[in-house]
Design a protein that fits this description.
Strand order of the largest sheet: 1-2
Low-confidence stretches: 15-37, 309-316
Mean pLDDT: 76
Radius of gyration: 72 Å
Largest sheet: 2 strands, antiparallel
Oligomer: single chain
Strand content: under 5%
Distance between the termini: 156 Å
Helix content: 55-70%
Number of helices: 6
Number of strands: 2
Amino acid sequence: MSALSLARNTLRQRTPQLQPSVQCTRRWLAEIVDIAPNPPADEIAITAAPTTEPVNWRREKVPVREDHGLYAFFRMKEPQEGEKLEGEDKYAVCESPQTYHSISGRGWKAEELRLKSFNDLHTLWYVLLRERNLLATQKEETRRMGVQNPEFQVNGRKLFHVRKSMARIKQVLNERRLAYESAYDIAAAQQETYNNETVLTHLRDERRRRAEEAEIAAKVAREEAERLAAEALARKEQEKLERMRALAVARAKAKADADAAAAEAAEIAATTAAEKVKTRGPKEPKPAPPPKTPREQASQTAAAGLFGRFSGFGRR
């Protein structure tokens, strides 16, 4: 149960004698009623409900403030020299023909409205709306008062200008809306094209970068392979040179050993021969054979040629 329902039930229980005297009174638009804040439920004061006398609005005027907003639906009068207007006398219910011709104008053109900003169009719309409501109020008042003279009635041409100006404001706003939608579509298409070009450019750059990286990696691998091959070839040449150097050293050493052994053997042979010579004494030279005659030389040669052929066969 809410606090308002609890307060109502408590008030009904504590004030049974005031129930018959409570009356529903009619309130009016222009009536000002002070509303005091509701006291707490446990501190409700028992007072009699205030009563107001109903106002017969058909016979009496309803009192209103001078700055009431409904006065905006009536046109203000221009006071004459030395004339002071107060209250409702400041406003005119119906316009005279002289006033109408003096303040009447034309409607707004579309080319004029296209030069206005959104704020100006917004303000002008409500100015025209107020003017349309003002004319509608004057028309209703003349109908209610039974004015038959057409000069004092609302001129339809003026209402036409107001409605036409409002329609042109709608037209200008619709043109701006269509232009905005077209510009938005163009901007969206341009943005999409830009995004596509950006993505394609990024993909091309990425593909080019990867190709360059692959080419650089292949070049590095090729250079590394060439370097390793050159190192292997240099290593083989170095090993070959070392083997040749070791072989040359070995050959030189073997030759030196052989020369040393030969020299040592020659020295030993010379020493042995010298010792034999010392032991045997000097050797007598052999006497030279007598020279042969030509006849002996020829017979010896023939014999050597005849028996030399069979000497080998017999040995074989």
